[in-house]
Amino acid sequence: MVGRPAVPEVIWARPERAGRGPRPAFSRADIAAAAVRIADAEGLDAVSMRKVAAELGCGTMSLYNYVPRKEDLYELMFDAVSGGYEYPEPSGDWRADLVALAHQARAMMHRHTWAPRLMSPVYGFSPNALRYLEYALSCLDGVDARFGEKMELIAMVNGVVTTYVANEIATAERSRSLPWSEEQENAVRTGYLISQIATGKYPRMAAGFAEDPGPIDLDGVFDRALQRVLDSFDR
């Protein structure tokens, strides 16, 4: 296939345009933006070289001259949506700074619900991924830890965010697919749970719900999960 490399290649090391010849009709940013629009509207599985080419008004085969593989297209997409982070001057409170960054990541993934599926160390070399890592490391400048330990902490925080958001998105998508409302479903399931606890078979559950009947504060759960990860690193 035109332009597809026979050896491993990093898309960012590949020149966006040759030194000679006509100016390319599209930039990587154009291609990434088109793919992101498709994914936002129809989901990641809807993204294909054919659809992106149609969005741009070019032939599918010509697109391979810009992006050799679909995996490269995914990398361009993830880099594009990672370009919206704000990087204020670190406050000196590394915990607060990492929590603020985690909240930005959570918001980004909710704007682009396909993004959690592309969270991978493979895409850690893109320009915006490197900016993210450099900023996160700058928040940890005052922490007495080795570079590898700091990277592990950043990875754990990102893991909490990705797992939590992926569950939120899956729950929301399931609710949209049902022929009844989320409130109706919750009422039926809550009624069943109450009936089971009332049997006396689950005394610890009964005591727990008597102590804290809910509803669950999902934002609070998210923050507590982050704090527990940070607690494991604090010393």
Give helix and strand order, one letter per element, not per position.
HHHHHHHHHH
Number of helices: 10
**CATH topology category name of the largest domain:** Tetracycline Repressor, domain 2
Report helical residue fraction. 55-70%
Q: Report the top-level CATH class of the largest domain.
A: Mainly Alpha
SS-based class:
mainly alpha
Q: Could you explain how this protein is built, in words?
A:
InterPro entries: Homeodomain-like_sf, HTH-type_TetR-like_transc_reg, HTH_TetR, Repressor_TetR_C, Tet_transcr_reg_TetR-rel_C_sf. Residues 25-85 form the HTH tetR-type domain. GO terms for molecular function: DNA-binding transcription factor activity; transcription cis-regulatory region binding. There is one protein chain. The protein is mostly helical and 235 residues long. It folds into two domains: 11-81, Orthogonal Bundle (Arc Repressor Mutant, subunit A), CATH 1.10.10.60; 85-233, Tetracycline Repressor, domain 2, CATH 1.10.357.10. It contains ten helices and no strands. It has helices spanning 28-42, 49-56, 60-63, 70-81, 94-111, 127-139, 147-177, 182-197, 203-211, 218-233. The N and C termini lie far apart (54 Å). 20% of the residues are buried.
